[in-house]
Design goal:
Helix content is 39%, strand content 18%. It contains 17 helices and 11 strands. The strands form 3 sheets. It has a 5-stranded parallel β-sheet with strand order 2-1-7-8-9. Strand 1, helix 2 and strand 2 form a beta-alpha-beta unit. It is globular, with a radius of gyration of 21 Å. It binds iron/sulfur cluster. The site of iron/sulfur cluster has 14 residues, from helix 15.
Length: 383
């Protein structure tokens, strides 16, 4: 029986096949965000790609890139008297050096799962005698909501609200992959191939639609102009992702590096001005630690001086610690696209979604979890 697919889909698939054949070598494209990773698997599109087109997952899953030191800070905060932790559910099971928030909750800590920053502020209103600490994770997609919530707290004089800042920025991380890698001296010494070597092997980037709605397609200019790598912004439907790959393959075949956007109905060149202004008002860019990658310059957000009183670390005198990942865990290489999950010795053995060792196995958008769930790891590792 022949699969019934819309002609335009078939035509794009044929074009992708033909272009990859003409390129005549392995083509490596990074899908930067976890939503793309999962969508490629879930839609079946991944299994329909040309044999010489390799998709590698990037550092765009917020749970996967949250450093152990920040999980440990959240655990320390949860141990404080009269503190409630408000967090998205995925963060509960991410292992830090001190265990996980889930374990701390089982031991009696007051940890609430919420689905928005605003709900955290509501909790602060409902629990006036306690301090509610919101774990602010995510990229530019969620950072504006955190900023708006802090402004609301200030406006209403709600002082029993604080945030643990873990927001990160996508483009600096992409640049770091292409530059000189992580900045933690110890990690850089032991992982000298991170950064430029991994980045040099990439032929282009499929850029995330949702982040791009906020930052605008022009935000990727440094990747194209400084690093000479093609970038195409795409949404998350199969047609969008396939169109994005076709545009990338055209550029790679031509030897070009352009910034293109196949999600134009949603993503504008300059992004969402209101959301960007919210972030500018409340945050400043800062050097921050990424899980297994070390510190990347200007790759995260911290509160600007006017709003620092909402910083949970300062308020409770918590000092940022160190990271100590399981030496066998290869999350750092997975999120740089250097290895595939099945190449980790712990994959599907000690590390499963029920017993995660690294963060990439925790989130539904984590690369290892996606490979585990969709059962393609072994087969694709051999490609
Ligand atoms: S399989 Fe587990 S331990 Fe290995 S890289 Fe993935 S998350 Fe880390």
């Amino acid at each position: 029986m022949t699969a019934c697919v819309p002609p335009s889909f078939a035509a794009m698939r044929s074009e992708l096949e033909a272009r990859c054949a003409r390129i005549g070598r392995r083509v490596q494209v990074m899908e930067v965000c976890g939503t793309h990773t999962v969508s490629f698997f879930r839609s079946g599109l991944r299994s329909m790609l040309p044999a010489n087109l390799r998709l590698v997952s990037g550092p765009g899953c917020p749970v996967c890139v949250t450093a152990q030191r920040h999980i440990d800070a959240a655990i320390r905060l949860a141990m404080e008297e009269r503190v409630i932790i408000a967090t998205y559910g995925d963060m509960l099971r991410v292992p830090g050096r001190m265990g996980s928030l889930e374990r701390r909750r089982a031991a009696g800590a007051r940890i609430f799962v919420i689905n928005s920053a605003r709900r955290a502020l509501e909790l602060a209103r409902e629990h006036a005698n306690e301090t509610v600490v919101f774990l602010a994770v995510g990229f530019e997609t969620t950072a504006p909501a955190t900023a708006a919530t802090i402004l609301e707290a200030e406006r209403e004089g709600i002082e029993n609200f604080a945030v643990l800042m873990c927001h990160k920025l996508v483009v600096p991380a992409m640049c770091a992959l292409l530059d000189d890698g992580p900045k933690d001296a110890a990690r850089a010494d032991s992982d000298h191939t991170a950064g430029s070597a991994a980045g040099a092997a990439l032929d282009g980037f499929l850029c995330p639609g949702h982040v791009s709605v906020i930052i605008g397609s022009q935000a990727y200019r440094p990747i194209v102009e400084v690093h000479g790598k093609p970038c195409v912004v795409a949404g998350f439907e199969p047609m969008q992702m396939l169109a994005g790959l076709v545009h990338l393959a055209r550029q790679i075949e031509e030897g070009a590096a352009r910034l293109e956007n196949v999600y134009e109905g949603v993503v504008s060149p300059d992004g969402n001005a209101v959301a960007l202004e919210l972030m500018r008002r409340v945050f400043v860019e800062a050097d921050v630690a990424w899980r297994a990658l070390g510190v990347i310059p200007q790759s995260g957000l911290e509160l600007s001086p006017r709003y620092r009183r909402f910083d949970a670390m300062r308020r409770f005198g918590i000092v940022e610690g160190d990271d100590e990942d399981d030496p066998a865990c290869r999350c750092g290489e997975v999120i740089q696209g250097k290895v595939e999950p099945a190449q980790c010795p712990l994959f599907a053995g000690r590390c499963t979604p029920l017993t995660p060792i690294g963060p990439c196995m925790v989130s539904s958008e984590g690369t290892c979890a996606a490979w585990y769930r969709y059962g393609r790891a072994m087969k694709e590792a051999a490609r």
